[in-house]
Amino acid sequence: MNPNAAQRSAFLDVRQVMRHLPQAVSKLDPRHMVRTPVMFVVWVGALFTTVMAVQDPSVFAWSVAAWLWATVLFGTLAEAVAEGRGRAQADSLRQARKDAVARRLHPDGQEEHIPGAHLRVGDFVVVEAGEVIPGDGDVVEGVASVDESAITGESAPVIRESGGDRSAVTGGTKVLSDRIVVRITAAPGQTFLDRMIALVEGSARQKTPNEIALNLLLSALTIIFLLAVVTLQPFAIYSGAEQPLLVLVALLVCLIPTTIGALLSAIGIAGMDRLVQRNVLATSGRAVEAAGDVDVLLLDKTGTITLGNRQAAQFLPVAGVSDRELAEAAQLSSLADETPEGRSIVVLAKQNYDLRVRREVGEATFLEFSARTRMSGVDIPVDGQVHEIRKGAAAAVIRWVREHGGHAGDDLADTVDAVSAAGGTPLVVAERFGGQPAQPLGVINLKDVVKEGMRERFEQLRSMGIRTVMITGDNPMTARAIAAEAGVDDFLAEAKPEDKLALIRSEQASGRMVAMTGDGTNDAPALAQADVGVAMNTGTSAAKEAGNMVDLDSNPTKLIEIVEIGKQLLVTRGALTTFSIANDLAKYFAILPAMFVLAYPQLDRLNVMGLSSPQSAILSAVIFNALIIVALIPLSLRGVRFAPTTAERLLRRNLLTYGLGGLVVPFIGIKLIDLVVSQIPGL
Amino acid sequence: MTQTAAALLQLAALVGALLLVQWPLGTYIAKILTDQRDNRLERGIYRLVGADPASRQPWSRYAVSVLAFCAMGLLLLYGLLRMQAMLPWNLGMAAVPASGAFNTAASFVTNTNWQWYSGESTLGYLAQMAGLTVQNFVSAAVGISVAFALLRGFLASGANEVGNFWVDITRTVMRLLLPIAALAAALLMLGGAIQNLSDPVTVNTLSGGSQTLPGGPVATQEVIKQLGTNGGGFYNANSAHPFENPTPFTNLFQIFLMLVIPFSLPRAMGIVLGNKRQGVAILSAMGILWLVSAATITWAEMAGKGLAPELAGAAMEGKEVRFGVTGSALFASATTGTSTGAVDAMHDSFTAAGGGLAMLNMMLGEVSPGGTGSGLYGMLVAAILAVFLAGLMVGRTPEIYGKRIGRREVTMVALYILTTPVILLVGAALTAVVPALVTASVSQAGPHGLSGLLYAYTSASNNNGSAFASFGAATTYQNTALGLAMLFGRFVPIVLVLALAGSLAEQTRKPPGPGTLPTDKPLFVGLLVVVVLFVAALTYVPALALGPVAEALL
Fold this sequence. Notes:
Strand order of the largest sheet of chain B: 1-2
Oligomer: heterodimer
Largest interface: A-B, 75 and 67 residues
Strand content of chain B: under 5%
Shape of chain A: elongated
Order of helices and strands of chain B: HHHHHHHEEHHHHHHHEEHHHHH
Radius of gyration of chain B: 22 Å
Number of strands of chain B: 4
Largest sheet of chain B: 2 strands, antiparallel
Structural class of chain B: mainly alpha
Structural class of chain A: alpha+beta
Distance between the termini of chain A: 47 Å
Radius of gyration of chain A: 34 Å
């Protein structure tokens, strides 16, 4: 069972509460409380009412004091539960970090065994099969298969090799085969694993800009309510209805936005945690928040929008050749071609023409594709003669045909152009028997296959106001065709890393926020420039360093999920803020008549809930105020339901649920609590 | 005709006229804001005061200019009142005492026009014309200038300036207020308001007694009193006086004048921001708030609950017969909703609910539709608050009109919404808690006395200027405290709004898309209205419960 399944349910279970209670109690430390001004006010109020209850004990006084402490405790409990979800993950990560012995390599070639914690940036270490990599670094020599399950949870080993974009290794992962030399790039204590542990535990959590702004506003509201309550006493004295301080404190606590104040940090922690559950690590809460604000997504074509590789889609023979003949030749030439393109040709021939390899090809010689010839092929001995089949880039194969006395007609050129224009890659197939002139057979149309469901995804993003830009190295013509098929809003063709960077800068200059994924070292500047830069875990350490998120699954499509998680975080915050403030109306109706009904009996007409007595009304409001926090902990951890749609629909739905709901729910809740509370003897 | 029909007819005529006029006037104001050229007269003024109309001010310079200008106005007016006895055209009036002069200077400079004195027995013509009327023009123009600066904050992109205060105030006075005031004064004189410089005339009445008939340049001060949402009457009876407001028609015309600029500014805003629907949305929110206030006050007065009205058959105590219940209620909702504070009836004598609703109308922060300029910037601050509170629910960092609401913006907004409640509640509570102050100023016992006290501080801190007459404000303490309340209630928000403008101007402007919260749709209008009502209710309901609510439920 998923360890987090329990938290996903709508209610907290008792075991969970008990487990986190010690943690919650330890958070009652005023030095901790003062970081949340709203809850600090409650804390002070609780202390104050306790002192008053001691001096002048009564059931009412002690009840109010106890429930105020409960209010504070429920707030810290929310935080503790949220943090607890990350702690389990952190513990398993710590297992991986346990100190490995490093085999440090001296410039003279000698090895020395030192504890991993003593490594310095720039050291070279040797790691062999069965050993744990002692720190983050880049492979500078060798190639090895590495088990990264400790951090990614993915059990299949990955290849790490020197040079290129797969050179980064993470401390704590295990080499399964071969021997590599790693140059250490992160000092102990600052490795990826260390950062990850700090992040999932929430210890490195800093308040995000939006959270700070919200806190400011909540503090201002708290001051206003403080003022309203403090100045109420002079007016009450004037009216001959001086109030006990206990009641004023109760009123204050009920009015200040305790619900959102108590849950605010839990919401933030849970948002980060939702990312971690999807195997994405954000280096800061700021990045998660920025994800919700993204206006433009830069998506790499390959792997994100299209399946990794181009696939054969059609056989287009020249005049006089049947498509079956072409398919057969194409299949033969691709038999030894292990590239995905080659395999897709074999598969297409098999599917569409039911072609199986009948001819004896055991003695055939296969020509591998090379960048120089730009074609591949096969030479099959048939009755002492050689049947040569060539397949490759149009220009290369046509040249081969001409060099071997053949002639490539206009219809071939037309087909090639047509395929290019439609965004496909034309591969020309030609053959030659013995000494006869070579003859072109036709064209294979290799197409990028757009992943299923992408069009709908982009449609949703558009409705949320997010523009998608496809980044590709293809020529503009090909790029346009794929962009149209996938339904992206724009594309950047023949993109070089500088172009990406320039595009990001220009979007940002017009006030938009940009998100992108990347893995290569040359992506690093763009990843650093983007507001949300998601580095693939398979990528280089430069890329991981530059981005503000790392996707452990290295799945570029996940960017879209990241955006949704960011939005959900903000929606949850807004919904609970609205709910919290809307609650106040009912509390006024409960408490104000209770306070002043003695001085002005006519105010009893405002007691619309028909609460049984002034004391029971005040206590009921206080209890409701505390219980609503507990009731909303699961929601704040889970996040409110989020479906991608336009801002207006989202606002309407959430205003109805949390605004209107926030107005109505407390009337019912306080009444129900009053029915119970009024039974308490001595009240 | 029944009272209800009369009320509806007046309201329909008023709404029709306002809708008709706000269209061209809004367009015209937008042009004043964006015009690149100065006319010859304006260039002359700039040369005279040594201002460079081409220079652009960052928000801090703009704020310093506003404060310096108003400080000068304050000193001049204070001097004028203190030295009245030595100056010409004083009709033999004595110098105004220090605390009173301070209160009046603060009152007129802040566009409040709270009057602790009675005009006909305290001020001569020079003080009225060179002192009060001048401030009636410029204090209104200051509000509009600050609103202009805020609009530029939304409009600018990565800029370090919010306009030029000297240009804004000069243009507002010269191009907007003076021409309309001149035209309106002529109309008001045609309607029967007086305009002369004669000394008071003493006549023998038919019953044998003698009566002093005051004169004065009334019509000219009257129009700017309403047009600039000032509210300071030439006479003590304010717009209830037949020389100021002779007929039901002039009554309706005065209401129209109060509302016309505040209701035209949203359209100007829409034009300037390049999306007129944004203006319509703000206009709608202001309109809904005002209509709700007008309807509820009228209902309260017509229902006439309370001992005296029920005995008399109608809530006519303190109301002019020529305006009746409906004309008075409509005037009350307009004057409290616009921060004008002129009255054509005694608010003190309104039913408990009616007086309480008039007070609540001010407590909204003067945004229904608020004072000249101050109504717009108040409503925009409320809009930012609404966007911030609910805007997170669309899953983005809140933004409005292409600008993000970040930490700095929220700080300014939070301080803005804190300012008035602090001044109002602390001010009123200080009086309530000191028995000597209660004895000196609160003449009525029970909840109505508290209502009067609350009303005074609500009026002063929101720069309205109307009052419950039973509250004795003409003491040294109240003159000073209320004067300070007016000054802080005016200039702290102005500085915050200008800082907000500066912070917005620095941001890159980004056109809103489908992912941003739509601020030009009915949904947002509803949200804005609810936020304005809710914030005011949450802040003031405890105090109101002991005043008007307790009184109304009797």
